[in-house]
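Bumping with the actual sequence this time:
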Amino acid sequence: VQLVESGGGLVQPGGSLNLSCAASPGIVNSDIVGWYRQPPGKEREYVATLTGTRDRPTIKYTDSVKGRFTISRDRVKKTITLQMNSLKPEDTAIYYCNLISGLSDGNWWGQGTQVTVSS
């Protein structure tokens, strides 16, 4: 599995960014897809995960992003997205896409994309 993130950049506080992760060869419903981040000088931390069918997905967020971030998955386009609204300086971090296989023991990471929230 190969994961490639895009969409990071510099944004002012209160702004929005949409991160995208292209997954090759693809995504199945039993996979757990997610986003993690590593703030400057800190360890990598959990942001959000999604698994399950389109009609009955299981979605979880860390408390600090609830109501501001939305994770989604498009199996046809083979992408995992993270829509980030109302961004705060403390959201500044390298954001990583993650996929845990529902069919094997595989656990894969993307290369990361930098998000900087600053005025």
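The tokens above came from a reply further down the thread. The mean pLDDT is 95.
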